[in-house]
Amino acid sequence: MSTSNFTRRGMLKTGAIAGAGLALPQILSAGSHSSYMNAPTGSTVTLGFNVPQTGPYADEGADELRAYELAVEHLNGGGDGGMMGTFSSQALQGNGILGRKVEFVTGDTQTKSDAARASAKSMIEKDGAVMITGGSSSGVAIAVQGLCQEAGVIFMAGLTHSNDTTGKDKKANGFRHFFNGYMSAAALAPVLEKMYGKDRKAYHLTADYTWGWTQEESIAAATEAMGWETVNKVRTPLASTDFSSYIAPVLNSGADVLVLNHYGGNMVNSLTNAVQFGLRDKIVNGKNFEIVVPLYSRLMAKGAGENVKGIFGSTNWHWSLTDAGSKAFVKSFGTKYGFPPSQAAHTVYCQTLLYADACERAGSHNPCAVGEALEGFEFDGLGNGKTLYRAEDHQCFKDVLVVKGKENPENEFDLLEIVEVTPAAQVTYAPDHPMFAGGELGACNAG
Amino acid sequence: MSILEVENIGKRFGGLKALDNVNLSIKEGTVHALIGPNGAGKSTLLNVLVGKLVPDTGSVMFDGQSVLGRAPHEINQMGISRVFQTPEIFGDLSVMENMMIPCFAKRDGSFRMHALERMMDEKQIVASAEEMLVEMNMIDKREMHAAAMSRGDKRRLEIGMCLAQQPRLLLLDEPTAGMARADTNNTIDLLRQISEERDITIVIIEHDMHVVFSLAQRITVLAQGTPLVEDTPDNIKGHPKVREAYLGETAV
Amino acid sequence: MDVIILQLLNGLDKGSAYALIALGLTLIFGTLGVVNFAHGALFMIGAFCAVTLQKVLNISSEAIDPTKTDFLGNPLVVKTPYVVNWFGPETGALIIDWSVPLALLVAVPIMILVGFIMERGLIKHFYHRPHADQILVTFGLAIVMQELIKQGFGANAIPTGAPDAFKGSYDFGNLLGFDPNVIIYPYWRMIYFAFSAIVIGAVFAFLRFTTFGMVVRAGMADRETVGLLGINIDKRFTIMFGIAAAVAGIAGVMYAPINSPNYHMGMDFLVLSFVVVVVGGMGSLPGAVLAGFMLGILESFASMNEVKNIFPGIDQIIIYLTAIIILLVRPRGLMGKRGVMED
Amino acid sequence: MLGLNKRDTSFLIIVILLTMFTPFLMQPFSEGSAMAQFNGGYPDLMAKVAIFGIFAMGFNILFGLTGYLSFGHAAFLGVGSYSAVWMFKLLTLNVFPAIILSVIVAGLFSLLIGYISLRRSGIYFSILTLAMAEMSYRLAYSVFTPLTNGETGLQLRPGDPRILDAADASRYPNLFGLELSTSYKLEVLNHVFTFNVGFYFCAVIAIIAFYLTLRIFRSPFGMMLRAVKSNQNRMSFTGLNPRPYTLAAFVISGMYAGLAGGLLAVMDPLAGAERMQWTVGGEVVIMTILGGAGTLLGPVLGAGAIKYLENIFSKINETVLHSWFSFMPDGMEDVVVSFFAFFTGKGWALTLGLMFMLVVTFLPGGLVEGGQRIWNKIRRKKPDTPNNNPAE
């Protein structure tokens, strides 16, 4: 390796810089030139889309990226405007954000906290992104949210379902549109009661990490409140690919409902295994054996194929909704890409619009001003009915969909049918609810 | 005064008796040769002596202390060095470094870090390594990659590395195998010099009878894992059983 | 008691999957002395042979049905697989339904070909290189293979079902005199177990009773000597690699209905299969099979709450813990040979 | 100087200069130019290269010198990070106590794992280390959540005790009050250069680590380690027990890993279990081999190459590609863009895999060998160039 060559080049460079530095002394420290981190100075503003592009959630990431590109197109006045037309706040003009053309950079979270933070950091430090958004898992969302709080930019969470994101790990600079474990449980429980009765024995299989535990805690509490008995809670390692040894003893336990607190690949495999073992053909305690998947994702349900038929779960949004906002979004997304958007795509599209709208209303990109504009903001027309961005924890409160795997799908996207739209009031909880306690927002940080 | 006492050593590999009731006594300061046909158990016996193999029965005493049950490096520290049939040297290191390692081992037999010391500051060790290389007639090759040397040079280096430790007993496993006649003669001279000037006891396994009879003071003939006879070279030459069993097929 | 029988069944089934992958890995280790980190990727490609065949059989003619609409309100495009057009609805549906077993026929030649190309094009240059280099190059190859599959098929799992005839499960509870439902086991998993047993048996028989196998076994014991005998060991190595690839491939095909294939399934199995091989002992085929079944059974029992209550998190680590204990007690694994991959 | 001979001293000076001028060297393209995408001179990436350089340097002491291939060094990286964050939470946000604790804890942990694993050699050793690291990862992710905060990772909270810090002290990791995230920017001729306190902190530590590595390589201990790799048989027949030497190398490399883990936490106070996964342990193996195992500079080059590829290539999405090739006719542009999109953006891992294969196949000595070959070619053309080839 020709190190001496390098030195020579290095020396030359230093010389040049010393000269230039004399001519143009301009040493800046962070924040000295403006009131907040990465304040846009030119005619453009840069947003950072940080999504999984490799690893098991790469398909969700790809769909999120499509939605982001669509949102940017709409914000800059292109396309048919999508949900900008139905959004109750009409602050957005289609001329970018505050008159600045929206540009974006993308990065790969790899669904790993370290990689996600590295990628977000490069967006902030290298590309001057003023807002970071995206992600398809709670660990990553919480890690990046913490980073954005420290760096002084806004974080608009993508798909993250753990109670902790807006619970004990909530941050002043972080905002979540997606629903959470508690809401899933609160929406599902009444439907389960109606369908399966009050006298049921539930067996929980739970992914052995933070999200799984909050999901299990939420759904167990909600079902026990209506009279179900929890027979057993079994934790399964995240790295499991085959769940047979966890599924096999279920029938033996006397349970008649199996709750799968799994997501992603875990959910596809555990559901496939459960159906394989013929659980759904069995009659236990005189009742049909049932399976429940509290958090459904259509993209993942696809991986489980026919096994999802008739199985209940909850979802943040589904393309078959018929309100004006959803229809507008499905139309512009479907026209551009040829298939309907996923819930991940929907939530990140909404987050981008909500962020842009807050900037317009605040008249600034300053995270503190934007945060203030988002706190307590009530809106409608983004597909989930009337929605509140609660000031206390930066969580959106909106209707939750209870869905069921469709028995006779008409096409490859038609996997879930909406059973009930649970109104927002029913899934709302106090900000100091024990499942969410232990954290504090802190003060907003503008860098 | 015998320096090494081998008593009743037996070793089986599965159904095969590799060593059967071997008794051997090596006198201090002598050159003692082990001969015998292939598979007679010569190398197995050496492996037992250096701790590479544990025998099923018997005992090995070196200078009044038992050798059995000790790790090879401990046996080496007692004063037994071994030269292998195919030279075992540090092929990735330079010749000089090869020689420095036994010099270190001589000084710090037990583990010491030396992690932040400069190798070239170890003046004493450098000096003794260089001295040994001069003696081995290899000083001009000191920066050479050891693996790149000829087989004869590797053998010399290995012998030199063993000598650098100033052992009391040197075990040699066919040191002249595959050597040209001139090299063989050089080796004989070297070994004779070692035995006479350094007062090192030598046990040598050798097929080349020219080497054996030029060097050895005592010879043990092994056959099928058991000593056939032990005597002086002259008596061995005339021993009918030996001629029949072994030397008969070899031109002497 | 019923729970123990149940977990034993599970363990045998898991174990058969581990054993089958480890078997192919050991064949390559033992004969070629190559650490193949791409073996998991071969397993994955096998599974995607099944996915691809299913997709190919579902290639459809399109017709527009004006009475129905799709999600955007446009007229619905109705697709009918060509297979159905050609063979009629019943036979056509049956062929599609049996796509996984049919994929075995496709996978064997494809995997042997993949194995040949891999060995001739890449692996053969690494026979005399350090194991670390072999690991790096095959790991790179594994990444390339799985990224290519990801680009083609996406990252999410693709459901690849067993034929309808083998769906559902069998109730052993009744058979063995326990309550109904307490011991049920899916048909396809039983088939997988039987299939593994047959493949393992076939590989052993092949190595034991054919001349080719004898040469290979001799090669595993002492590679140099076999080379000296003037036998063209190169050609046999290539064939051996092809066979190992085919074993991995058909294991993947048959695994597809158990868990929907995704592009990273190979990596998921990679570490595990290495642990199995090492626990079995490098270069020992029976060792690999034994270790596979042993770890499968232990893993099944460790997942029971009764066990987990005593040792929290034991199911997370049981395989690794067992591996450590075995390697400390038996230096070369269960049936390993001295001097193989010890330097 | 500093106990080095002349050649090594000049080598060290060159390395120091390279490190100090990293903000310039990694930022060769002017802002706004099409090539600006390839600039890597931002604090996080530069610090990551330094930190993973330390990690790989330490790993190289074990693998490059003794030949023992450990797949478990991620465990020490993770333990180092956890120790540092706990120190931040309990004692003080000053970085020194955190880093010292990281090194100590990682050293003790590696002593334990090394003592057990080194009872075996070859692939059996590799699997033992792999098994222990994977166990650590899985337990950290689940059962040890009270200690590690599981999936989310251990992070700072406003309510942490931090008993040594004054109430008004900085809330971020700092060097006696100077926050590591502080940056100074220099704008020259449309280039922006960033000088970050954290990067320079890591860089100074990396230089110290490099200096120690250099000394170890040149010491009798380093010679003994190479002897272990070369011929363990001869070693024990020379009266030396290889075990303490390998164990010492294992612990030293574990401490380097712990230091790297501590620095990761210093730069970004969050410690996640994923840092202990076997893939991270595999990454450092790859960095070392890719750069050139057993060479001094190779592991650092390997670390730089992989981190650069991971962070820069993954950001080149199709929009960026379109902006590069917009001068082409439409149809052709689409073809070219979709070709490159195969290898960049979401396809960056493919490029990584191809790079492993190409480097290992054609440059068995890693990137260092590549550099040497180029150097030799240049030298053959200009025979009067002084023979200065320290990156052996």
Can you describe this structure?
The complex is a heterotetramer of chains A (447), B (252), C (343) and D (392). With 447 residues, chain A is an alpha/beta fold. In chain A, 37% of the residues lie in helices and 19% in strands. Chain A has helices at residues 3-23, 58-75, 113-125, 138-151, 181-196, 210-225, 244-247, 265-276, 298-304, 324-337, 343-362, 367-374, 424-427, and strands at 27-29, 44-51, 101-108, 131-134, 154-157, 174-176, 201-207, 229-236, 257-261, 283-284, 287-288, 290-295, 312-315, 377-379, 387-389, 396-397, 400-405, 416-422. Chain A has a seven-stranded mixed beta sheet with strand order 8-7-9-12-13-17-18, sandwiched between helices. In chain A, strands 3-2-4-5-6 form a five-stranded parallel beta sheet, with helices on both faces. In chain A, helix 5 runs parallel beside helix 6 and helix 8 (265-276) packs parallel to helix 9 (298-304). Chain A starts with a helix and ends in a 20-residue tail after the last helix. Chain B has two domains: 1-79 and 167-252, P-loop containing nucleotide triphosphate hydrolases (Rossmann fold, 3-Layer(aba) Sandwich); 90-164, no CATH class. By secondary structure, chain D is mainly α. At the A-D interface, helix 1, strand 1, helix 2, strand 3 and helix 3 of A face helix 1, helix 3, strand 4, helix 13 and helix 17 of D.
Short description:
In chain A, helix 3 (113-125) runs parallel beside helix 4.
Question: How do the strands and helices of this protein lay out in sequence?
Answer:
The complex is a heterotetramer of chains A (447), B (252), C (343) and D (392).
Chain A: H1 3-23, E1 27-29, E2 44-51, H2 58-75, E3 101-108, H3 113-125, E4 131-134, H4 138-151, E5 154-157, E6 174-176, H5 181-196, E7 201-207, H6 210-225, E8 229-236, H7 244-247, E9 257-261, H8 265-276, E10 283-284, E11 287-288, E12 290-295, H9 298-304, E13 312-315, H10 324-337, H11 343-362, H12 367-374, E14 377-379, E15 387-389, E16 396-397, E17 400-405, E18 416-422, H13 424-427
Helix pairs in contact in A: 2-11, 3-4, 5-6, 8-9, 11-12
Chain B: E1 2-13, E2 16-27, E3 31-35, H1 42-49, E4 57-62, E5 65-66, H2 72-78, E6 80-83, H3 95-107, H4 123-135, H5 151-164, E7 169-173, H6 181-197, E8 201-205, H7 209-215, E9 218-223, E10 226-231, H8 233-238, H9 240-245
Helix pairs in contact in B: 3-4, 3-5, 4-5
Chain C: H1 2-32, H2 39-57, E1 60-69, E2 75-81, H3 82-97, H4 99-121, H5 131-153, E3 169-171, H6 172-176, E4 184-186, H7 187-209, H8 211-221, H9 223-228, H10 233-255, H11 265-280, H12 285-302, H13 305-310, H14 314-329
Antiparallel strand pairs in C: 1-2, 3-4
Helix pairs in contact in C: 1-7, 1-10, 1-11, 1-12, 2-4, 2-5, 2-10, 2-11, 4-10, 7-8, 7-10, 8-10, 11-12, 11-14, 12-14
